[in-house]
Amino acid sequence: MPTRRRLAALVGAAALSLTLAAPATAAPIVIKFSHVVAPDTPKGKGAVKFKELAETYTNGAVTVEVYPNSQLYKDKEELEALQLGAVQMLAPSLAKFGPLGVQAFEVFDLPYIFPDYEALHKVTEGEVGKMLFAKLADKGIAGLAYWDNGFKVMSANSPVRTPDDFLGLKMRIQSSKVLAAQMNALGAVPQVMAFSEVYQALQTGVVDGTENPPSNMFTQKMHEVQKHATVSNHGYLGYAVIVNKQFWEGLPADVRTALEKAMAEATTYANGIAKDENDAALAAMKAAGTTTFHDLTDKERAAWIKALAPVHQQMAGRIGADTIAAVKAATGK
Ligand code: LMR
């Protein structure tokens, strides 16, 4: 784990590279883009697309270095590194903003709040999305875009078809109190853990199960260590692409404009491939045959919805009843 002193040294280096970058002939401005998933995922591919477009549109004035798979930092550390300026860009899952003190983002974790991508986009592409980004400013962070991943599958080594099946299971979650409440509502025992540690924890039985969209489950090979999975689509997992605000606002205006264009196009690309990537990952896991996948019947889905509905009320104080209402108004649900 990087020490604060090491991070401070990196901050100095980042500031220096920015100063030197101003003249046309100077060394490029370096954007370190750190993330925790595999390159072959919607986020991994989106990051590479942004790199290509950013370097093209700035005529090489900017170099984007993409670090996938928690190579530089794990979940919690990467947010600290961004605030300190040791990296300039991240795309954490929306379920990881609570520890920063912006709990309203956990609205995205509420069970069954988004029936599909269309409803989700009414939030991420509308006023609620902007309102949430505004909450990041006093944390030294600027939000640039929302990137899709997908709807989650529940997995374990025993069948997880009905809420009763979760009783006593240790389930890995991201650092979201809403996800903890969701697992508690199912009678499971939630355990917060960094993404990079999940495979091993499943393999060794430190936890019994987890939840993730198929693209993450497949690219982390979780299907090799989970015998059962239910395609429950009970919750959504997506990202906010965020930057260190001081770094972003300190960029020459023309460079920032070019980067905004690159981000807009990378966002269209990433959000355009997310569903297909998840469908393909699910098909690949089914073909691998190591996990038995179950689709919920209507009756089973109704039981899940009933078991998880109280979480909305329980978490209203934490997320903000106004934020939940704004999301529901935007989606029309
Ligand atoms: C997780 O920790 O399960 C996800 O947030 C990983 C990711 O970034 O998709």
Protein architecture, described:
With 333 residues, the chain is α/β, with parallel strands linked by helices. The chain has 2 domains: 4-98 and 116-148 and 237-278, D-Maltodextrin-Binding Protein, domain 2 (3-Layer(aba) Sandwich); 153-235 and 280-331, 3-Layer(aba) Sandwich (D-Maltodextrin-Binding Protein, domain 2). The protein has 14 helices and 11 strands. The strands form 2 sheets. Strands 7-6-8-5-9-11 form a 6-stranded mixed sheet. The protein has a 5-stranded mixed sheet with strand order 2-1-3-10-4, sandwiched between helices. β6 (170-173), α6 (177-185) and β7 form a beta-alpha-beta unit. The model is unreliable at 1-23 (pLDDT under 50). The protein binds (2S)-2-hydroxybutanedioic acid (LMR). The site of (2S)-2-hydroxybutanedioic acid (LMR) has 9 residues, from loops.
List keywords for this structure.
D-Maltodextrin-Binding Protein, domain 2; five-stranded mixed β-sheet; 333 residues; binds (2S)-2-hydroxybutanedioic acid; 11 strands; disordered N terminus; 2 domains; 14 helices; six-stranded mixed β-sheet; globular; alpha/beta
**Strand-residue fraction?**
15-25%
Domain unit count: 2
Mean pLDDT: 93
Q: What is the helix content?
A: 40-55%
Q: Identify the CATH homologous superfamily of the largest domain.
A: Bacterial extracellular solute-binding protein, family 7
Helical run tally: 14
Oligomeric state of the chains present here: single chain
Gyration radius over CA: 20 Å
**What structural category arises from helix and sheet content?**
alpha/beta
